[in-house]
UniProtKB/TrEMBL annotation:
This is CTK2 protein. Keywords: ATP-binding, Cytoplasm, Cytoskeleton, Microtubule, Motor protein, Nucleotide-binding. It is found in: Cytoplasm, Cytoskeleton. Pfam families: Microtub_bd. Belongs to the TRAFAC class myosin-kinesin ATPase superfamily. Kinesin family. One of its GO terms (biological process) is microtubule-based movement. Its main location: cytoplasm. PROSITE patterns: KINESIN_MOTOR_2. The lineage of its organism: Eukaryota, Metazoa, Chordata, Craniata, Vertebrata. It comes from the Eukaryota.
Length: 84
C-alpha cells in the first residue's frame, strides 16, 4: 500500500438534528466489512445506491479510543528538531 490512507468517520446525529431527521437510514454499514459505506439517495426514478470504499469506516457508534487505536501508528507526535 502507498503512504496515503483514507478514513471515514460518520458522526452521530446531533440532538437538534434528531428532530428533523429520525435516523441515518440513508447510510448503510455492511456488518462484516469495515471498509465500505453505502449511501442511498432518492432520485426521480427511485432510490439510487452509491458505494464508497475507504481504508477504514468508523460508524457513528465508534469511540475515540477505537479510532485512536486504528490510527495511532500513522500519527506522528512532536515537531521538528531544533537546529543546533
Amino acid at each position: 500500500q502507498g503512504n496515503i490512507r483514507v478514513f471515514c468517520r460518520v458522526r452521530p446525529v446531533l440532538p437538534e438534528e434528531e428532530e428533523r431527521q429520525k435516523t441515518l437510514e440513508h447510510l448503510h454499514f455492511p456488518p462484516h466489512d469495515n471498509k465500505t459505506l453505502s449511501h442511498v439517495g432518492r432520485e426521480r426514478r427511485g432510490d439510487v445506491r452509491y458505494d464508497f470504499s475507504f481504508d477504514r469506516v468508523f460508524p457513528p457508534g465508534a469511540s475515540q479510543q477505537e479510532i485512536f487505536e486504528e490510527i495511532a501508528l500513522l500519527v506522528q507526535v512532536g515537531g521538528r528538531k531544533k537546529p543546533p
